């Protein structure tokens, strides 16, 4: 392949939540672009109120197989993003093995449904701990070795359209995804002097286990006016978007083609946020 076909050749990417869905897609697409991969996933229950099954060890093993099928190396560990020590160990081992860390995709997250005053403290805390503190843990683990390496790099946080336009029925989720934007923007300014760029991606309606959670329909059935907050996009929205389409944006942000972008919020929403 040419350099154009493999713009990330020689680089190493760390992806959280890599067992399936967007995380797996990001791993495979980054590998296809030439990067070696380090990924983690909890591979087990992380939030009791989720309306979809948790990722499994078998799914993480399938991600490994797919990345290896692209001809790239991969290290995959069963670590929850809420485990700061675990993330730091994985990153340290990866830097020792590969000699560098260039790309980070803070992808892992959970989503469930409930009105803000009706959810339990547990439901609130599990979402905040995974989606917001989990991203901070990732930042804490990856930034020091990236600075020490002196190679610059790209950190990509996966927020949500709900991190720009809050919606009813999942305010706790929205709060975390808005928080990811604040972390992204602050970190971009703090890391600019080191040549490390930080941007967030904002998907809407993605074809993953989370995106297909049927428990959302009960929320809409109980509170029918909520549906008006989930408007169609400017482009046809009759189907959920394939994770690969989000990964196209991730690969772009990871590559030198996006060298002028930092502290940016990139919508992957078919125009939903503007309609």
TrEMBL record:
<keyword id="KW-0520">NAD</keyword>
<dbReference type="InterPro" id="IPR002347">
    <property type="entry name" value="SDR_fam"/>
</dbReference>
<dbReference type="InterPro" id="IPR023985">
    <property type="entry name" value="SDR_subfam_1"/>
</dbReference>
<keyword id="KW-0560">Oxidoreductase</keyword>
<dbReference type="InterPro" id="IPR020904">
    <property type="entry name" value="Sc_DH/Rdtase_CS"/>
</dbReference>
<comment type="similarity">
    <text>Belongs to the short-chain dehydrogenases/reductases (SDR) family.</text>
</comment>
<dbReference type="InterPro" id="IPR036291">
    <property type="entry name" value="NAD(P)-bd_dom_sf"/>
</dbReference>
<protein>
    <submittedName>
        <fullName>Mycofactocin-coupled SDR family oxidoreductase</fullName>
    </submittedName>
</protein>
<dbReference type="Pfam" id="PF00106">
    <property type="entry name" value="adh_short"/>
</dbReference>
